[in-house]
Amino acid sequence: MAGKKVLIVYAHQEPRSLNGSLKDVAVAELSQQGCSVIVSDLYAMNFEPRATGKDITGTLSNPGFFNYGVEAHKAYKKQSLSSDIIEEQKKLQEADLVIFQFPLYWFSVPAVLKGWMDRVLCQGFAFDFPGSYDDGFLKGKLAILSLTTGGTASMFSKTGVNGDFRYFLWPLQHGTLHFCGFKVLAPQISFGPEMASEEERKGMVASWAQRLKTLWEEEPIQCSPPWYFGQ
Questions:
Q1: Which of the four pLDDT bands, split at 50, 70 and 90, describes residue 103?
Q2: Who's near 71: CB < 8 A, 6+ residues apart?
Q3: Residue ranges of E strands in 24-172
Q4: Where is the Flavodoxin-like fold domain positioned along the sequence (predicted)?
C-alpha cells in the first residue's frame, strides 16, 4: 500500500536459501506497491544477540548489582542505550508493518533474532507497567511471522508428532509481539522446504508473494489463548 513503511527483520545466513527468497520477494512486492521497505539482515549486520552491560553507554544506576532490565529501561529514558539498539528502535518506530523472516530453531527463533527481541524491545520503548498487550507502546503497528520449518505440515498438526504449530507461536506472537502492542497477522509458514521438490519450493515463494498483494486488507488474528489452544 503506497506510503506504508515496512521493516523486515531477517535471520538467515544464506542469501540463496528459501528464507532469502521469501525475504527478496517481500521486498520486491511491497516496493512495487509503493511501500518503503527496510531490511535488518541480522547475520550480515553481525548483530549482537547478548544482553550485557555494553548496551548501556552511560553510568549504571546500580554498578554493584547488575540488573539488565532495570538498566536498559533507565538507559532508554536517558537515551544512553548503545547505537545498534537505538538504530533498530528507530526503524521499528517508523514501521507500519514488521515482517520477521526466519527458520524455526527448536520451536523458536534463531539466537540472533531472539537477541534482537531481548535488546530492542526494552521497557520504556516497547512496553511499560502499565502499558502492555492492547496498551503496549507499539500499538497501531502490524506484525507477521514468516517462517520455514524442518518438519512437514502433518507433523505440526494436533495429532502430529510436534503438536499443532499454533502451540509454538504462543510465546512469539502473544508473549512478545502482542505484549508490545502489535496487531498480529496470521503467520506465513512454509513447511518442510528441505523435503519438498524445487517446484513446491517455488510454490511457497509464489504463495507468499500472492498473499502480500492483499496483506493490508487482512484482519489480525484474535491473539488470545483460544486461537492457540482451542476452547
A1: very high
A2: 53, 55, 56, 60, 61, 62
A3: 36-41, 97-103, 142-148
A4: 4-212
